[in-house]
Structure formats: structure tokens, C-alpha cells
């Protein structure tokens, strides 16, 4: 014997996994609700433009003249690691062999192509509790902007070289 038949008017509505009725049409998507960083202030050190000879920051500061930029702790510093100095804050000479991207120990040498950090250097940085990425200038600036907005300028830093920088050029 068959059970009672339900007429189409007495059918129960389909229920979702949460036991709520399934709507006939999908709800409209509010894309404004998806922008989780919309209310986050843009850091003053966010890079707005990468120029051939420097950078323009969100604060209105323009770093030019072929200078690089160090963005650390919410502050921007002019950076010329290719000019060796004696550590007193003055710029070094631009003599032969002195315009290379090296630190005092000679650990960096950056050409037009991107070179990965050695496993030992990466391990040493990781042991300090830091992460490092080696990117081209535009992508590095974009990554810095996103991370500084998301995490705050106290947790993110960037060392940027102008996109027009050439080894040995004045």
C-alpha cells in the first residue's frame, strides 16, 4: 500500500545544508562588501609611481636623482648602496668599481636580471624571524603597498632600486 500522495501545493520547500529554504534565484552580489581593505588607510610610504630615476610616495614625497628607497617603520630613506661609504653617513666616491650594489661584506651584486638569494642567506634571514622576497622594482613596490596596508608599516619593509638604474651609469 502506497503512502499518502502530496499535491504540488503541499510540497515542502527544498532546504539547504543549514536547513533554511533555498531561494529561487541567487542573491545579488555586493562587490563593495568584498573589499576588506577599503576602510584601511593607505600608508604614507606607499609607492604611487616607480620612475626611471626614483619613486613618488603617497605622502607626496618624491625620491629622485637616481636614488633608491628604503621603506622601513613607516619612514622613507634615500638609499644608494652602490656608492660605498665609510659609515659616517656621507656618500662615497664614484670611482672605478665603486658603483656596484654591494654591502660592506660584498654580499649583494644585482644586475638587470633577478637573482635568487642563496639558501644560506635565506636561512639566516629566516632564523631572524623575517621573510624576504626578491622581485623586480614594480612588483616589489606593489607587494610592499599591499602588505603595508594589510599588516601595517611596522611589520613590512622594502629596499627599492629605481627601474632605470644601470650598473656603472652615472
Automatic annotation (TrEMBL):
User: Domain of life of the organism in this record?
Assistant: Eukaryota
The record's Gene Ontology biological-process terms are:
mitochondrial respiratory chain complex I assembly
- An example Pfam family from this entry, by short name, is DUF498
User: According to the UniProt record, where is the region Disordered?
Assistant: 1-34
Q: Per the record, where are the segments of Polar residues compositional bias?
A: 1-11
A cellular component term, taken from the record's GO annotations: mitochondrial inner membrane
Enumerate the PANTHER family for this protein: NADH DEHYDROGENASE [UBIQUINONE] 1 ALPHA SUBCOMPLEX ASSEMBLY FACTOR 3 (PTHR21192:SF2), NUCLEAR PROTEIN E3-3 (PTHR21192)
- The identity of this protein, by name, is Uncharacterized protein
Q: Which organism is it from?
A: Staphylotrichum longicolle
What are the leading ranks of the lineage?
Eukaryota, Fungi, Dikarya, Ascomycota, Pezizomycotina
Amino acid at each position: 500500500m502506497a503512502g499518502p500522495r502530496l499535491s504540488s501545493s503541499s510540497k515542502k520547500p527544498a532546504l539547504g545544508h543549514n536547513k533554511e529554504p533555498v531561494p529561487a534565484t541567487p542573491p545579488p552580489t555586493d562587490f563593495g562588501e568584498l573589499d576588506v581593505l577599503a576602510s584601511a588607510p593607505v600608508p604614507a610610504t606607499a609607492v604611487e609611481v616607480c620612475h626611471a630615476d626614483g619613486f613618488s610616495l603617497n605622502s607626496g614625497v618624491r625620491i629622485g636623482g637616481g636614488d633608491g628607497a628604503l621603506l622601513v617603520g613607516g619612514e622613507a630613506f634615500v638609499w644608494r648602496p652602490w656608492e660605498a661609504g665609510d659609515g659616517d653617513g656621507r656618500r662615497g666616491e664614484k670611482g672605478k668599481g665603486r658603483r656596484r650594489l654591494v654591502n660592506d661584506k660584498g654580499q649583494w651584486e644585482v644586475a638587470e636580471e633577478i637573482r635568487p638569494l642563496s639558501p644560506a642567506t635565506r636561512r639566516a634571514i629566516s632564523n631572524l624571524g623575517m621573510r624576504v622576497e626578491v622581485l623586480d622594482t614594480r612588483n616589489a613596490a606593489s607587494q610592499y603597498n599591499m602588505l603595508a596596508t594589510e599588516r601595517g608599516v611596522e611589520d613590512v619593509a622594502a629596499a627599492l632600486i629605481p627601474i632605470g638604474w644601470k650598473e656603472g651609469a652615472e
